[in-house]
Amino acid sequence: MNRFIPVAWLGLLVGLACNLTAGERVAFIPGAEIGGEQVLGHLRLKSVITEFLDPQDTGLGKSLGYLVWRETLAAISDQRGAGVILAHPPGDQRIVEMLRQDYHQAALEIAKYEEAPIALWGRITREQGQLIIDTACTLLPEINQSVLKVRLAAGNPQAAADDPLTLQAVIPRSRFSFAWVETTRDKLFERSLVSGYEGAVLRAEPAENARSLAWLPANRGLQAVDMQGAWFKIRQTDGSHAYVHAASVMLPPREVAATGLRVKFHTKPTKDSTKLKELRLSGLYRVLDSRYLRKGVWYRIKAGETAGWVEGWRVTPRFSLPAVHFLAGLFRYFAQNYAVAEQEFGQFIERAGANTRNRVMATAYQLRAASRLMKAKHAFSADKDAVLADLEKASRLTPYDPSSYNLQVIAQLGAYPDAAKAIAALQRALDLDAEDPSALGLVVSLKKITERSGQTQYRNLLRFSSEEKLKIQSLTLP
């Protein structure tokens, strides 16, 4: 069975499952034979996050793995058919002590076994009192080629899914090393939490067999002050401390961002509650509490002297690491939630840092451009200027890469068609790599359209002048 999921301009040709977002844990024992029953086997879109390496023994490798796992789940909390798996050593064992083979390769082997097409891992070190976090992500084409090769198809809204011709471009990169992040322990772990849908148990010590202090119902706000292994240290209302396991809580962003919108503050996380005030928000705001409800997430924040609840869609979550936004963007893109995918890739671009590799930044701009194209209700409603601006930035970052020019072909043909500029972009891609598969595929399809060979609905969308047809025919194939 061909597992490639072609992403059409106006629809996903192979749908995703309809189960709610889920999280699960698996044992990570490098060197040992992988076996047992797959977790989240009913889901078609999954990611594996491995416990972070901790070569300097900061004691935070396990904690950071759990943190990124729960933040990623929060980032895609409303997405159906998606799951996030945490791979970690059993008990208190440290992954750096157990490693008997390449860490990256071990992470990929687990992702392959769990049939998760995305793997994310990293390392944490300490330098002059600051924590330095490196993260990386790999897409596995052998699991699901749609993740490795992000395909766009431009066409008539009524075009059949089985049209013999496809105008498509490929974003070919599959490995990403993100820029290191410098942070502190407080910025990572001092934050609000919410007990899970099945509640949570507060314990006297960070251990499963420790004395139970209280059982919390679902959706109860908590205040974390630190983290030890897989356990958050909680400050209770009387000032005492307790511990809650990370797997039993939801982890909202530590901060949210706003860009000048007027937002209503409520006394409770519901539209029916009393409205405190309406304020224009701009900047970053600390999340004091949050609620995950059927109709969406709410955040309790403070702006000036006003503290209250605001609807989650009115603000933008800011997670601990830019890599979480990149990962969430991939999830959203493949679930056709392109508006949120654009937002997540935008957050990554904004926060990626000056030391981010050009290839990674170029791909982020390509993915944001693709999201902007795909979110349009129809081809002609896309924000062509914003799309082309992103692709031009990608081209400047990686002038040797034809993929940005291939995407420009799609944008020029699909959004207010400009055939002359599309042909020029295609020629530029061929000049860079005369054997680039995407460029060659575009040449073949355009030639067939101009030759009127075979049945295709692209002719209802594209109109070429005689001169443009000659230019297309002059594009040579090897």
Describe the structure.
With 478 residues, this protein is α+β, with helices and mostly antiparallel strands. The protein folds into 4 domains: 7-183, Rossmann fold (3-Layer(aba) Sandwich), CATH 3.40.50; 186-245, SH3 Domains (SH3 type barrels); 255-318, Roll (SH3 type barrels), CATH 2.30.30.40; 327-474, Tetratricopeptide repeat domain (Serine Threonine Protein Phosphatase 5, Tetratricopeptide repeat, Alpha Horseshoe), CATH 1.25.40. Helices cover 31% and strands 29% of the residues. Strands 3, 4, 5, 6, 7, 10 and 11 form a 7-stranded mixed β-sheet that branches. The protein has a 5-stranded antiparallel β-sheet with strand order 17-16-15-12-18. A 5-stranded antiparallel β-sheet has the order 22-21-20-19-23, with no helix packed on it. The longest helix has 17 residues, at 358-374. The protein is globular.
What key phrases describe this protein's structure?
alpha+beta, Rossmann fold, SH3 type barrels, 5-stranded antiparallel sheet, 13 helices, globular, disordered N terminus
Shape: globular
Question: Based on DSSP secondary structure assignment, what is the total number of beta strands?
Answer: 23
Q: Domains counted in the coordinates: how many?
A: 4
CATH architecture of the largest domain: 3-Layer(aba) Sandwich
Largest sheet properties: 7 strands, mixed
What is the strand content? 25-35%
Structural class: alpha+beta
The CATH class of the largest domain is: Alpha Beta
Oligomer: single chain
Please give the radius of gyration in angstroms: 24 Å
Helix content range of the residues, please? 25-40%
Q: Could you tell me the mean pLDDT?
A: 84
CATH topology of the largest domain: Rossmann fold
| Spatial gap, N to C terminus | 31 Å
Q: Helical stretch count?
A: 13
Q: Which regions have little confidence, pLDDT < 50, spanning 5+ residues?
A: 1-20, 154-158
